[in-house]
Amino acid sequence: MESELFGHKRGSFTGAVSDKKGLLEEGEGGTVFLDEITNTSVAFQAKLLEAIEEKIIRRLGETTTRQIDVRFLFATNRNLEIEVEEGRFRQDLFYRINVFNVEVPPLRERVNDITVLAKYFLDRYSKEINKKVTGFTPDALQKLKDYYWPGNVRELQNVIERAVVLTKSELISVEDLGFEAAKGESIIPLKEIKKEAVMEALTATGWNVKRAAELLQIGRKSIYRYMKKFNISRKAWGTP
User: Fold this and answer.
1) Coil, helix or strand at residue 235
2) Which helix (H) or strand (E) holds 185?
3) pLDDT digit string, tens, across residues 9-66
4) Residue-wise pLDDT tens digits, 59-83
5) Predicted TM-score (pTM) of this structure
6) CATH 1.10.10, domain 190-229, yes or no
7) Is the CATH code 1.10.8.60 the one for domain 107-177?
8) CB-based contacts of 237: which residues, under 8 Å, 6+ apart?
9) I want to staple 201 with a disulfide (CB 3.0 to 4.6 A). Which of 134, 140, 207, 212 is the partner?
10) Using CA atoms, how far apart are residues 194 and 226, in angstroms rounded to an integer?
11) What does the pLDDT read at residue 181?
């Protein structure tokens, strides 16, 4: 990873047969996006902090520094505050990159996006396999909205691709989606699942919002938003 981002000098390691620019040099004047930043080592994070703070890098095997001019964007699906507390992520790097924070809610919290994304993937895969599939039955669309989507957009993408391949009609049906529910059972409404999860987390932590947020792996702001949305409070729920 260090070689890819910072570059290396010829002979600095086995296989380094020539000097190589890193992506931070190649991206001069542009934007570098690092996905899943929490998957990096603490040692790597130290070098990255220097690149962000001082706008300089050192290629592997070199002692001289080089100036860079790039903008950084980072993404993670973990709670960075928890990662810092448990020693897996540098606190100084966290404060440095947490300048402007955009929280992207999971797909289950963006129900209106599900239809748009489903239609996009439908159009994409029907063209790829040259198969005339024009839409979804009303029941299929409702099933997509009711599903919890633990795998977020990638799971939705896979479900639609599979449905396009399997369907024998121009409209994708519930059966084509492949969701398996126990016989005679209906899917629990998504809002009820959220409400129950929040209530269980708050009860288990003695109504400690920070600890409840950690249990659910969401931010404290999200907990407060759900409490307001579902009218969750000790008084309203008769909790002493």
Assistant:
1) coil
2) none
3) 888 888 877 888 889 999 999 999 999 999 999 999 999 999 999 999 888 888 888 9
4) 888 888 899 999 999 999 888 888 8
5) 0.57
6) yes
7) yes
8) 199
9) 212
10) 8
11) 44
